[in-house]
Amino acid sequence: MKSISLQKQLILRLLLLVTCLWLLGLFLAGVQLKRELNKTFDSALQETAERILPLALVEIFNREEAKLLQQLPALSAHEERLTYQVRDADGEVLLQSHTARQKSFTTPLRNGFDSQDGYRIYTVSAIQSTYFIQVAEPLAKRRDAVLNTLLIMAMPLLLLLPLCLLMAVFLVRQVIRPVRQYGTQLAQRGAGDLTPVAHGNLPHELEPMRQAVNQLMRRLQSALEAERHFTANAAHELRTPLATMMAQTQRLEKTLNDEASRLKAGQLVTTLNHLVNLSDKLLQLAKADSSGLLTDTPQDLSLLLSLIADEYQRSGVQDLQLQLPQQAVKACIDADAFSILVKNLIENAIKHGEANSRITVQLSVKGELRVVNACEPLNAEQLKRLHERFFRASVTTPGSGLGLAIVDALVKGMGGQIQLLSPASDSDKGFEAVVQLPIQS
């Protein structure tokens, strides 16, 4: 299921809310603006009619024929916004503006406002309702005025929308930052670090989640510690009786005269050796699963690796070639954990490598540890399962199937990375383990 970005959801919804509120505000402003402009235009229309009517009556009374239609000429060419007509009580047009002939005022001759055929018309009478003047204004002009005013109002707001977007992104990121820091704090923890997470700046609404995570981590830590203690105690308790049984079996083997009995006693010694090795591996696995793999004091990995390799070289078990950098490689890794890691890699190379073949152990200045041996290459399925506990790629080779599982647990607990290759680099055969350790820069 695809995850949903909380930051993206907040930004989109905030912008949608701001846009809807902006449109609603613009609509309400338009309604109010239309109402106010209509009042203003109606007032101007009424004042125009009342001012023109006396002048028109003087013009009518001073001419020779009062009933004759007179059209006043325009002083200059222009678009006439307001047109008017003066009529008598019978509706006969006596005087009109220069473009009024194109219009037909068919509204009743009564005082007041009226709207008809796309015009707003104001009618006023004089001399006991014997003369009437009607002044008309196109409603389209009013609509244009409202739209132009709204456009002028909307332009600054449109320019502010990108600023609103930037501010929304900034503010949401500020709010989400404690959540991201909380997630980063969890992600940066090692595999064995199950200590409670500090409060930090986490929002109050997410405090129950933090408490639930801490409770879960405490329960998980208790369960893992109980399992580790059981494994370590069981392995430790087995060592003494196994050592006793080993000594008694070896003494018994020397006292037996029958060849068949000595053969059976030897097989028993081999089995006991396997159990002893298994108990040692279980102790190492308990160490690998613990949280004490890192230290506050940096260790010189070159020196530790040199001591471990010297132990194998003096034993003469295998041809071991060690390659170390000239400068020290320091890391805050527990010395015992590093020793277990290297020894398991070398023992795995010895067990599964070809007889009398060379094993190469190399440590780079960047903290990259390589252990290479010569063997037949493994297939992809075997290579994929090597880190599983008790998995053995070859059932004919003695072992517990825990060596590389211990290595994998140690590397993860140290905060490093491991890569298993077969065939080895620059070869068509062999096996290579590449471990990237977290070193001090």
From TrEMBL:
Membrane topology: Multi-pass membrane protein
Domain Histidine kinase: 233-441
Top-rank taxon: Bacteria
EC number(s) recorded for this UniProt protein: 2.7.13.3
Transmembrane intervals: 150-172
The UniProt record lists the keyword Iron: no
Listed InterPro entries: 2CSK_N, HAMP_dom, HATPase_C_sf, HATPase_dom, His_kinase_dom, HisK_dim/P_dom, HisK_dim/P_sf, Sig_transdc_His_kin-like_C
CC per GO annotation: plasma membrane
Protein name per Swiss-Prot or TrEMBL: histidine kinase
Species this protein is from: Nitrincola iocasae
